[in-house]
Amino acid sequence: MAILTNYKKKKEYLICIDSDGCAMDTMDIKHIQCFGPCMISEWNLEPWREQALRKWNEVNLYSMTRGMNRFKTLAMVLQWVDDTCCRIEDINSLADWVNYADELSNASLKRELERTGCLIFQKAFDWSVAVNQSITLLPDEFKKPFGGVKEAIEAAHQIADIAIVSSANREAVVEEWEKYGLMQFVDVVLTQDMGSKAYCIREMKNYGYEADHILMVGDAPGDREAAERNQVYYYPILVR
C-alpha cells in the first residue's frame, strides 16, 4: 500500500534530504537544550543530570546511533540509566515496543498506551510532547538552515523531485522549512509518522523512479543504511 495517495512523479530523478543536521543546522541545539533536559525532567533524573545528559548527547550526536528515531534512542538511554543510575519502571516494555512497532510516533505510542496501560508509554508520550513544545520555543536564530542549502535545493529541484525524509516531528520540519523559503522546492514530506527512512525510500521507488536515479542526502549512519537497503545513492553531510 502506498504511503501517499495523491503523489505524482514529475521528474526522472528523486533527491531525498534529511532535515536536522543536514539541511537545517538544528541537530545540536535540539538535543542539548530540548531532548535531553526534557528526559531529565520527565524521569526526575536531576541527581544524575550530568552523566545522563552526557549519555544522551553521545548516543544522539556523537556516535553511530546519531539521527536515530527519538523513541529508539530514548529506550537506549533509559536502559543505560536503569543499569547505571536508578530504576526506570517498565523500561523493558519500551525497549520491546521500539523493536516491534511498525511506526514510532506520538500517535502509535498513544495507541500502545491504550492497549497496555503501561506507565512508561504515558511518560514517553509526555516527554515527546514536551520536547516538541520546547523546540517551538527555541529562538529563531537557533533554527536556521546551513549556508547554501536554499540555493542548492533550488538548483537540484530543476532536474529532480525533492523529498524531505526525516525521523523528526512533521510539524516542526514543515515550520522550519517554510520559515526559510525551502518548502517551495519540496514535492513531498516524509517524517516519523510515515515510517522508517528505509521504508519511505522504498515506497517512493514504487512511483517509478529507477534506483540509480535516487539520492539520499543525510548526516547519520541510519541515513546511509536506509539508502543501502534500497540500493540507491547516498551523499554524506559530515558532522562538524
**Poorly predicted ranges:** none
Sheet of most strands:
5 strands, parallel
Mean pLDDT equals 94
Taking Cα atoms only, what radius of gyration do you get, to the nearest Å? Answer: 18 Å
**Strand tally:** 5
Share of helical residues: 40-55%
Distance between the amino and carboxyl termini: 39 Å
Strand numbers in spatial order across the main sheet? 3-2-1-4-5
- Secondary-structure element series: EHHHHHHHEHEHEHE
Overall morphology: globular
Content of β-strand: 5-15%
Structural class comes to: alpha/beta
Q: Can you give a write-up of this model?
A:
There is one protein chain. The protein is of the alpha/beta class and about 240 residues long. Helix content is about 50%, strand content about 10%. Strands 3-2-1-4-5 form a five-stranded parallel β-sheet, with helices on one face. The protein is globular and about 55 Å long. The model has no long low-confidence stretch (mean pLDDT about 95).
Keywords:
single chain; 240 residues; alpha/beta; five-stranded parallel β-sheet; 10 helices; 5 strands
Give a brief outline of the structure:
The chain has 240 residues and is an alpha/beta fold. The protein has helices spanning 27-42, 49-61, 70-84, 91-100, 106-116, 119-136, 149-156, 170-179, 197-205, 221-229, and strands at residues 13-17, 160-165, 188-190, 214-218, 233-236. Strand 4, helix 10 and strand 5 (233-236) form a beta-alpha-beta unit.
